[in-house]
């Protein structure tokens, strides 16, 4: 569904302008409509395009379906503990889009947002100019793919893709494939290639991992019972530092399982440490493989140990647990790999994205380009963010927690509108 039924006028003034037509922007629209607040959602591409255009063919959720809880539209299928595949996710989103029926302008890029002296926001877009009393930025934080400069030195015969452009193993040329990075995308893409029988060279980063199932249940179910997903960022041990964390790698593929890079290595995948450089026809890697694998396993075991403690504290009858023991260890740290001798025909960069809010003219950003806010409310009057990782809780950037954040922001919008109306009435009197 790329054309919402409720189209908006091309220009004008709105009480609220929402920038971004993903699940965050649509969730804000849902609550704005409930509150009777006029608004416009502006989307640079097409509604929920990221799920449609930036996911590989075998993509599936890594959290169980029951956590799909968009506002007024919870998962209604018959497999709550399963993991929706790409086409099922799109169908779920299409249903949500139809329900919200947001006032939407697609293919509309925001070029500049600036608050005027009178407090009204002036918005310049490729489809006209608008004004709004308040603005919600719901465009996410993953805008510009990160590709290192060493990529420029690779020969033209090497096909290079960023993770968002990867689709399937068959679309790549014959030969080995190097995957750089082991966050959720890197680990799952490496698995996808490995299962297809491709030779994979994997540059392992510092991402942690977790178990899929432990002591008879999905780890997500245990953590939900432990109220981990309700923990606000200010109560997390890392505080706002948790926003910089890489997501744990695990998969929902084929009903869900662990991703164990050691097991892949035992089956023939070549693992290296962090990719540092390309010189004299050789890749150079940092000697970090053993440490990165050990750190990922430590996190895996630490999460399981917290579940053990919860089970013991509450006297829950559950199957026995245990500690993960490595099934493979690197005999030595290999720090170089000859490009020509490796047979590498393609490289997939899975090292993340950087935010780009250059169009937003507001003094709310830190040195790394991230906005300062408290639960999405910025220090600038009438400016909000929603849909960012750990905006408030673990689920803030996911289907599971966006409803709570969107409702909170709309409540703040409504209160701000009341304050302004009261002030205007007092001045008029």
Form type:
globular
Q: On the 0-100 scale, what is the average pLDDT?
A: 93
Strand content: 15-25%
Which class of secondary structure composition applies to the elements? alpha/beta
Question: Tell me about the biggest sheet?
Answer: 8 strands, mixed
Overall domain count: 2
Q: What are the defining features of this structure?
A:
single chain, 429 residues, alpha/beta, FAD/NAD(P)-binding domain, eight-stranded mixed β-sheet, 27% helix
What do these coordinates show?
The longest helix is centred in the last third of the chain and has 27 residues, at 402-428. The chain is α/β, with parallel strands linked by helices. Helix 1 (23-34) runs parallel beside helix 3 and helix 1 (23-34) packs across helix 9 (402-428). The model is unreliable at 1-6 (pLDDT under 50). It is built from 9 helices and 22 strands. The strands form 6 sheets. Strands 1, 2, 5, 6, 7, 8, 21 and 22 form an 8-stranded mixed sheet that branches. Keywords: Oxidoreductase. One of its GO terms (molecular function) is flavin adenine dinucleotide binding. This is Flavoprotein involved in K+ transport.
């Amino acid at each position: 569904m790329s054309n919402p039924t409720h189209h908006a006028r091309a220009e004008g003034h709105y009480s609220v302008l929402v920038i971004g037509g993903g699940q965050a922007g649509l969730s804000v629209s849902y609550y704005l409509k409930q509150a009777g607040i006029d608004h416009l959602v502006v989307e640079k591409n097409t509604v929920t395009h990221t799920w449609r255009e930036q996911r590989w063919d075998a993509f599936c959720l890594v959290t169980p379906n029951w956590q799909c809880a968009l506002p007024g539209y919870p998962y209604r299928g018959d497999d709550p503990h399963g993991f929706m595949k790409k086409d099922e996710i799109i169908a779920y989103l299409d249903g949500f889009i139809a329900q919200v029926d947001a006032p939407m302008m697609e293919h509309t890029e925001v070029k500049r947002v600036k608050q005027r002296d009178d407090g009204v926001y002036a918005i310049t877009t490729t489809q006209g100019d608008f004004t709004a009393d308040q603005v919600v930025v719901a465009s996410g934080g993953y805008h510009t793919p990160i590709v290192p400069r060493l990529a420029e030195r690779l020969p033209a015969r090497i096909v290079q893709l960023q993770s968002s452009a990867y689709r399937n193993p068959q679309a790549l040329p014959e030969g080995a494939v190097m995957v750089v990075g082991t966050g959720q995308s890197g680990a799952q893409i490496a698995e996808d290639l490995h299962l297809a029988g491709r030779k994979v060279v994997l540059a392992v980063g510092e991402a942690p991992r977790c178990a899929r199932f432990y002591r008879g249940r999905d780890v997500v179910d245990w953590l939900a019972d432990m109220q981990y997903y309700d923990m606000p960022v200010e109560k997390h041990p890392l505080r706002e530092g948790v926003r910089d964390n890489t997501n744990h790698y695990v998969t929902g593929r084929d009903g869900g399982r662990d991703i164990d890079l050691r097991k892949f290595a035992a089956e023939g995948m070549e693992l290296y440490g962090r990719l540092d450089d390309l010189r004299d026809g050789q890749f150079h890697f940092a000697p970090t493989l053993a440490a990165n694998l050990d750190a990922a396993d430590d996190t895996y075991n630490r999460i399981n140990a917290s579940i053990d403690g919860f089970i013991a504290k509450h006297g829950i009858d559950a199957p026995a647990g245990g500690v993960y023991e490595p099934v493979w260890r690197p005999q030595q740290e290999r720090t170089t790999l000859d490009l020509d001798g490796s047979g590498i025909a393609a490289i997939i960069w899975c090292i993340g994205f950087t935010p780009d809010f250059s169009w937003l003219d507001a003094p709310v950003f830190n040195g790394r380009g991230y906005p300062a806010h408290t639960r999405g409310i910025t220090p600038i009057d009438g400016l909000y963010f929603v849909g960012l990782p750990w905006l408030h809780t673990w689920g803030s950037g996911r289907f599971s927690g966006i409803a709570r954040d969107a409702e909170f922001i709309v409540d703040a919008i409504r209160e701000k509108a009341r304050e302004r109306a009261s002030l205007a009435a007092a001045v008029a009197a």
